[in-house]
TrEMBL record:
Name used for this protein in its record: T9SS type A sorting domain-containing protein
Cytoplasm among keywords: no
Annotated localization: Cell envelope; Cell outer membrane; Secreted
Lineage: Bacteria, Pseudomonadati, Bacteroidota, Saprospiria, Saprospirales
NCBIfam families in the cross-refs: choice_anch_Q
PANTHER family documented for this protein: G PROTEIN-COUPLED RECEPTOR-RELATED (PTHR11319), OUTER MEMBRANE PROTEIN PMPC-RELATED (PTHR11319:SF35)
One cellular component (GO) term of this entry: extracellular region
Amino acid sequence: MLNDYKKLLGCALFLMNIFYLQAQTRLYVRATSTCVTACGGSWANAYPDLQDALSAAESNATIEEIWVAQGTYRPAVSDRSLSFDIPGDISLIGSFAGEGSDPDARSTTFYPSVLSGDLNNDDQANFGSYTDNSYHVVTTDGIGADLYVDGFTIRGGNANNTSNAKQDDGGGWYNSQYKGVSSPTISNCIFLNNRAQNDGGAFYNGGNYGTSSPVFIDCTFTGNQAKSGGACYNNGNSNVASPVFSRCSFTENEVVGSSATGGVLYSFSRAGTDNGTLYPGSVYPDFSNCIFAQNTAEGNAGALYFLADGTGGTANSVSNIENCSFYGNTASVGGAVYLNASNNGDNSATIRNSIFWNSSANTDPIFHYSSAGAGALPNINISFSLVDTDDCDNLIRDGAGSVDCSDLLFYTDPETPVFNDPENGDYHLRAESPAVNAGSNALVNSSTDFEGQMRIQQSDVDLGADEVEAVLPVDLVAFQVRAEGQQVNLRWETATELNNDFFAIEHAGDGVHFKELERVPGFGTSQESHRYQFTDLHPVSGNNYYRLRQTDLDGTFTYSEIRVASISASSQTARLYPNPVGDYLEINWTESIDTTLPYSLIDQWGREVQSGILSLQSGRARLEDLEGSLPAGIYFMRVGDQLFRLVKGSTR
């Protein structure tokens, strides 16, 4: 009788929660909460367990975002096989204060939200006491391309179950799909001290016959370990697997074992056949404004390893490295980057405006090639970069392949002043560094450097991830943004101004691709305090990123730090499908209206590739003939005031 009563009570509480959730679009989670019924509606009655909030979001399509307060959250009490299984179509946002006078305040430094696989809270240095840790801290499986995760530390995963094909990969996060899409956007996250027995200490990305192309923005990978891909493993076996890394740092990751490969990344492509259909392997890894420092491989590739294996069909690996800094990476073979093409595989890398300094290896301290079977030899095209060798021929001394050099700076003196204090983790350029003003502005595809500051601050772009900061002509003492209803109010204050012409307010829906909204005149030269304000009447649903571009009377300009405000979805929005995109794209407005809406399509480097006017008939419109005009990759599409992330698959 008592058990029956408990079951009835449990059902009643479950139904109460479902009824309550139907009226809201956001859930709250706070580790110190004591809520037991009707949880999740506010910080005051937040879920104490993140797993409960994820389950509620999975069962309720109206939930659009989950806010998580500071604290440590574990996927289970003792079951190592459980993880935080995140559903698609939501925003999971962490590092809120969750209490006090401003519970909505966010800071990954002061209010960290930690997702931990350390179930017994007994982890030790060098992966000691990891035997009871979760196999994966986070998993995502076929979640589409709309999941957004921001502001978490993911640590303590230990994928060491060699009897399970998945549970020995991806200690921090395991991302996969089968004939679908699993391409989350991950921002402001720290992957710390995760381990995998096999592939991908911090992050495993893969699947079959579909697309798994995550985007990482402002993420840190430190102290992760695996056999292949100390930080990340990118599996392009019969799969489009094209991760994008912007403003990320990779430090002290390692791969261990005699055949260990890829201190930071192991990425490969290979074709596969399913029911008579051939699926090519296509990987296009992209790195911009990233730092690779003091990563190690007992075997090959201290930092990045790219493999294209043409066994069975087409396999392409085309990697892009722009404005990145490589320092002190170590391997037995190939200290920094290693390209391997075999059996008709096509493997190439383009490197621009970058720095390679103090890498070491028994064979080829900077780059290395290998090739087997017929097909094109691997190729590196490197331009406008600083390298610590004496000429192009010595970039690669061994292996079959080719290197194309142009406009390189060759330095062999280890005392050359390049970074401030790299041995202690300071990879800012010294003012007298030969990398300052040494790059090509024509090859720059990002507006900000590693720290989010203006990418070009003097005559020419600096090499590497960091731009030497110009002296600010304005003393900006405050800059705040705050969502109020369906608007965002911006306020800022200056203490002094020198030759200040105007402030340009810039906005981005993804934190990367900024566009100007408005200009506010400055006060020229002034020793008095001045206050400014601006209201964005048309923000996008979800996160809105803002920065100020302060411009002098002579046209020179500097950027403020980036601020974020979150807007709940308005009642009128659009649905875009299919995603991944094929030859066409349907736009379906929630209200059945006849109207016109402007749209623009932006690629992952911030370039507008298509724009126009949509003519909606009964709320519907269609873009045609995209197969030939739109290459495979990640895109952002703005329709009216809504921003969407799209994946364009390759033609099969």
